[in-house]
Design brief:
Layout lengths: L25 E4 L3 H12 L7 E4 L4 H9 L9 H7 L2 E4 L19 E4 L6 H8 L3 E6 L2 H5 L4 E5 L3 H9 L3 E4 L3 H10 L2 H10 L4 H8 L4 H13 L6 H11 L5 H10 L4 H26 L1
Parallel strand pairs: 1-2, 1-3, 3-4, 4-5, 6-7
Antiparallel strand pairs: 5-6
The structure holds NADP nicotinamide-adenine-dinucleotide phosphate (NAP).
Length: 288
């Protein structure tokens, strides 16, 4: 499963050393809920603060959240990130992708997209470089060192890096499986909604055993990380931090609220991933 992609064999795609000794510069484009968690996970892993660069859009609210997280001094422009970082995470919303279409990306940069639904094909067409995708679970799990993350295509260098910052990496064999993981990492939020809807979760888990290894694995993981004792407002805040407007968690949670099973909600999430992917593929082509 953990295959080596062709890009790993290119020396310029190697990070310059262990995280604590001779680190490369890490860039995070889009310091929203996920991007801030990734930046903090690097810091928690001992990554020098001076080597973490982040960017955001124009929202004052986001800037305030960045400052509250203690990341204010890490903020810079996208241009500087693309110039200095050797490993860049793209953590903007899929719908914002076009705003990055004109950036010059060096072929020696490793770019990892965290955007739901958008295929490597779309991204490679946009930037003319090989792009990896990773789909981590929500920010809380990243910060707690309990995150799982799908990775495509497999890459030893990237897998090792993600492991160092505390993510459990699942290398998948194609982008359909990235859709599966993307819907699956919504389960911690989905389980909270399912509880509110009085869904028989034990029964859902038993039924899940017939729906494939990946589904069962991610659902079992979600049962261990979904918070148990949250008040109503805390639950709402947790779900909101995991939800990107118009995104997959929103779709999965809505499906459960409409009375569907966890599995049907998962299928609806996968379908939403495909829709986003197709929509953005079309928009990037027409933008060129
Ligand atoms: N949240 C999760 O649990 C989760 C899990 C896995 C994957 N994801 C993926 O991660 C991505 C981000 O999700 P999120 O929930 O973190 O969304 P979010 O909180 O809305 O964060 C997106 C950030 O991107 C920034 N941004 C927009 N345009 C930009 C640009 N041109 N350059 C730099 N930054 C820009 C926004 O800044 P402003 O606010 O200043 O405009 C915002 O801070 C999505 O693609 C989602 O599919 C999210």
């Amino acid at each position: 499963m953990n295959s080596l992609s062709p890009s790993d064999r290119h020396p310029s795609h190697m990070l310059s050393g262990p995280l604590t000794t001779d680190p490369a510069v890490i860039g995070i484009i889009g310091a929203g809920h996920l991007g801030r968690a990734l930046a903090l996970a690097h810091r928690q892993a001992g990554y020098p603060n001076s080597r973490i660069l982040i960017s955001h859009g124009s929202s004052q609210q986001t800037l305030e959240a960045i400052n509250r997280s203690g990341l204010g001094r890490n903020v810079t422009s996208n241009e500087e990130i693309f110039q200095k970082a050797s490993l860049i995470f793209i953590a903007i919303r899929p719908q914002s992708l076009i705003s990055l279409s004109r950036l010059p990306v060096s072929p020696s940069t490793i770019v990892i997209s965290c955007m739901a639904g958008i295929s490597t094909w779309t991204l490679q067409n946009l930037w003319n470089i090989p792009v990896h995708r990773m789909m981590p679970s929500g920010p809380e799990t990243v910060l707690a060192g309990k995150s799982i993350a799908g990775l495509y295509p497999g890459s030893l260098v990237i897998r090792d890096h993600l492991t160092k910052i505390g993510l459990e990496v699942i290398v998948v064999s194609d982008e359909e499986q990235m859709h599966d993981i993307t819907a699956g990492v919504c389960f911690p939020a989905a389980l909270l909604v399912a509880k509110d809807q009085n869904l028989d979760i034990e029964n859902e888990i038993r039924a899940g055993e017939g729906f494939g290894h990946l589904y069962s694995r991610v659902l079992s993981w979600a049962c261990t990380v979904a918070p148990q004792e949250l008040s109503g407002p805390e639950r709402t805040a947790y779900i909101s931090r995991m939800s990107t407007p118009g995104g997959i968690t929103e779709t999965v949670c809505r499906s459960i609220r409409e009375g569907n099973s966890l599995y049907q909600a998962y299928l609806d999430g996968i379908s939403r991933c495909r829709d986003i992917g197709e929509e953005m593929a079309g928009r990037t082509i027409s933008d060129r």
